[in-house]
Design goal:
Blueprint (H helix, E strand, L loop, with lengths): L25 H16 L4 E3 L9 E4 L11 E11 L3 E6 L9 E6 L1 E7 L5 E7 H14 L10 H19 L1
Antiparallel strand pairs: 1-2, 2-3, 3-6, 4-5, 6-7
The structure holds ligand K1U and zinc ion.
The site of ligand K1U has 17 residues, from strand 1, strand 4 and helix 2.
């Protein structure tokens, strides 16, 4: 397993729409293993493949609180098939926008359909942090970032800060 480098704002890759997984190959299995390793190393509770530069619809999530009982789930081609009317606000972070947080309102509960690494199609109902994380990661697959849910003023500010930092790092 390999920890792969994270793609950081304002990298244009983060705006790509990821391609569906059409077959479960060794490449996909290795990608999923590396994503889990990268997610734990960061550390984070979720990761979308585009955050390591791979435009495939693959997500890993582990929202379990116990650090000694790791329980990652791999979601292939995840899609939201139902969302609750009730909303919840969570102070979200993103491994591609380090050390920046912002309050985002999203449906409180969702039902997600996805394919497992065994090729089985399953549905999962989620609430709390898992529901928020699933929506955040599925946004990544569509080139959407949590800052897109904030005001234009906040988004412009964070974009400016990260663009400046990227220019400084490149100099
Ligand atoms: O997609 C990502 O960038 C991962 C992101 C997922 C996420 C977190 C919170 C709300 C929505 C989506 C993160 O994991 S940010 C880091 C984080 O939240 C965390 C890190 C260590 C322990 C607990 C949480
Ligand atoms: Zn993110």
């Amino acid at each position: 397993m390999t920890v792969r480098p994270l793609v950081i704002l304002p990298d244009a890759q983060l705006r790509r729409i990821s391609e569906p997984v059409s077959a479960i190959t060794d490449e996909i299995r290795t990608l999923a293993r590396d994503m889990i390793e990268t997610m734990y190393d960061a550390p984070g509770v979720g990761l979308a493949a585009i955050q390591i530069g791979v435009a495939k619809r693959v997500v890993t999530i582990d929202t379990s609180k116990d650090e000694n009982a790791k329980n990652p789930t791999v979601y292939l081609n995840p899609e939201i098939v139902w969302s609750s009317e009730e909303k919840r606000i969570y102070d979200e972070g993103c491994l591609s926008i380090p050390e920046f947080y912002g309050e985002v309102e999203r449906p409180d509960r969702v039902r997600v359909r996805y394919m497992t690494l065994d090729g089985e199609t399953v549905e999962q109902e989620a609430d709390g942090l898992l529901a928020t994380c699933l929506q955040h990661e599925i946004d990544h697959l569509n080139g959407v970032l949590f800052i897109d849910h904030l005001s234009k003023l906040k988004r412009d500010r964070v974009m400016k800060k990260f663009t400046k930092a990227a220019k400084r790092d490149a100099a």
